[in-house]
Design a protein that fits this description.
Layout: H1 12-20, H2 26-32, H3 37-47, E1 50-54, H4 56-66, E2 78-82, E3 93-94, H5 96-104, E4 111-115, E5 118-119, E6 136-147, H6 162-177, E7 180-191, E8 213-220, H7 223-230, E9 240-243, H8 248-259, E10 266-269, H9 277-280, E11 297-303, H10 310-325, E12 334-341, H11 353-358, H12 362-368, H13 372-379, E13 387-394, H14 410-416, H15 418-422, E14 426-432
Parallel strand pairs: 1-2, 2-4, 3-5, 4-6, 6-7, 7-8, 8-9, 9-10, 10-11, 11-12, 12-13, 13-14
């Protein structure tokens, strides 16, 4: 007698589609792993795709666990290590060898975020050759607010001079970057009280980052960090770069990075540090873009402060901008100028403040050789130009803001730029923080 099973049967593809619908619900996914063996793999794929480690205790537990949890190697693709925001929690501290060991046990990880952590120096008594971590291509790498905490190095202060101390910290960062070969998107932000004289660092003692290249780079760090990437043995595949160097050594490093980035398409100078042109009194750096023959867009930012006038703006910002744009290739399609307006003494930005800053009279133009008419001439070099955007960004909320910051300003700029105006590419806008 033949027994025909009447139990329902669904193809595995339907199981996968059902589980995909709850891929962001960790509790439901955990329940799905207990339903049957056929549900275990597709549910685990989503359940363990991203691992978040928060705080010192979780890091130690995970570090001890990951070497024996072989199933994780099949599923984990994103790893996030970060400290708690609560200042009462212990700061998350680690050395790069722990990262190497963790990554060695998670070969499918291609997204890594290390946020707000303190990097410990490697104990010289440890045998670093014991860790064999083969550099891998990555989709995204974020080093957010990496801290080389001064307290960690206090025991070294009497024995090691400051430049050597900086070299030591730089070496730890070099080891971090050496874990990767190519990176699609990288955000690098370093916070270190000893990174005050990066020009003193002797980078020749560091080996090159073999086969290391980045495609999209957001760089919130000094020139010594740029040098780590620039000194790579591989020509850069950089297509997007965001930074704003503010020291001479940083300027030199960024220029050399631009020189070895022939594929660059999007260049953004965005202020990230308190020491900007109007706070230190030094002009923004100008750069030679003649080697970036595929560049399509440039973003330039002015962080205005109260008390200075149009001559300061023309000297500190506009003149360097003109020098940079005069070297840009004819492939440029979009240029944006972003003016950040501080609040007035009453707490709201004044509509007349931007006018006082950027409306440059003819006498000053002749004296300084920098004015909007000079920009009009330079823009003739870009036949593919489709947009020149000016944005006034308020640094306060919109509550109580009255008036148009472009009143009397946009007309002045258009009057000084007749050829660009006729091309109908000028755009004026307002944004709020």
């Amino acid at each position: 007698m033949t027994i025909i099973s009447t139990s329902p049967f669904l193809p595995l593809e339907l199981f996968f589609m059902i589980i995909d619908q709850v891929r962001d619900d960790k509790a439901t996914l955990a329940g799905c792993t207990l339903v049957s063996r056929s549900w275990l793999a597709p549910a685990s794929k989503h359940l363990f795709r991203e691992i978040d480690i928060r705080g010192q205790e979780q890091l130690l537990h995970f570090y001890n666990f990951v070497s024996s949890a072989h199933f994780l190697s099949r599923f984990v693709k994103k790893l996030v290590l970060w400290s708690y925001d609560d200042t009462e929690e212990e700061t998350l501290e680690f050395d790069v060898l722990k990262v190497a060991e963790i990554l060695a046990n998670l070969p499918r990880v291609d997204e890594l975020s290390i946020l707000g952590l303190s990097i410990l120096p490697i104990d010289p008594r440890r045998n670093v050759d014991l860790i064999q971590c083969i550099p891998r291509p990555m989709k995204t790498v974020v080093f957010g607010d990496i801290i080389f905490d001064a307290s960690i190095y206090e025991f070294l202060q009497e024995a090691i001079l400051a430049p050597s101390l900086e070299s030591l910290m730089l070496r730890e960062l070099h080891r971090l970057l050496s874990f990767f070969s190519s990176v699609h998107t990288m955000h690098l932000e370093v916070d270190c009280p000893y990174f005050t004289c990066p020009g003193l660092l002797d980078l020749e003692n560091l080996p090159p980052l073999l086969d290391f290249s980045v495609e999209n780079l957001t760089l919130n760090a000094d020139g010594c960090v740029v040098d780590l990437i620039r000194n790579s043995a591989t020509p850069q595949a950089l297509t997007t770069l965001q930074c704003m160097p503010y020291e001479e050594c940083s300027n030199d490093a960024v220029q050399e990075l631009l020189d070895v980035s022939p594929e660059l398409r999007d260049l953004r100078f965005v202020r990230y540090h308190a020491d900007g042109p109007e706070t230190c009194g030094l002009p923004m750096a100008s750069f030679d873009l003649s080697r970036n023959g595929k560049l399509q867009s440039i973003h330039l930012e002015a962080q205005l402060v109260r008390g200075f006038h149009s001559i300061h703006f023309a000297t500190l910002y506009l003149a360097p901008w003109l020098r940079t744009l005069s070297t840009a290739p004819g492939t440029i399609q979009e240029i944006s100028f972003d003016f950040c307006i501080p609040p007035s003494p009453e707490g709201t930005p004044g509509a007349e403040y931007l006018k006082d800053k950027v409306v440059i009279n003819q006498e000053a133009v002749v004296q300084l050789g920098a004015g909007w008419s000079q920009l009009d001439t330079i823009l003739d070099r870009f036949p593919s130009l489709v947009k020149v955007e000016f944005t006034a960004a308020y640094l306060t909320s919109t509550d109580g803001i009255t008036g148009d910051p472009w009143e009397g300003v946009s007309d002045h700029i258009c009057e000084c730029m007749p050829r660009t105006r006729e091309r109908k590419v000028l755009v004026f806008g307002v944004s709020h923080f």
